[in-house]
Design brief:
This protein is of the alpha+beta class. It contains two helices and five strands. A hairpin with a 2-residue loop joins strand 3 and strand 4.
Length: 79
């Protein structure tokens, strides 16, 4: 969902996040790496979307499940 305050002010941009997919597939340790200037609600919305993701298949190394950290850009753009 596009945050109303940012939509009203015509603010657009990309929030860069980092998160970890743990050995059991659940997602956690979500961090904002870079925010959009003037769009504080973008951070909250991007984190909310990451938190709602279903479990992922965990990474494997030498046949064993391991924790993997990903970086993900989330772009907010009005039409």
């Amino acid at each position: 969902h596009y945050p109303p305050m940012e939509l009203e002010n015509g603010i657009q941009g990309t929030v860069n996040l980092s998160f970890t997919v743990y050995k059991d597939g659940h997602i956690g340790d979500i961090k904002v790496l870079r925010s959009v200037k003037g769009g504080p609600n973008f951070d909250k919305e991007a984190k909310r979307v990451i938190e709602k993701m279903p479990p992922w298949k965990p990474g494997k190394m030498n046949g064993k499940s391991v924790n993997v950290t990903y970086n993900l850009p989330v772009t907010f753009k009005t039409n």
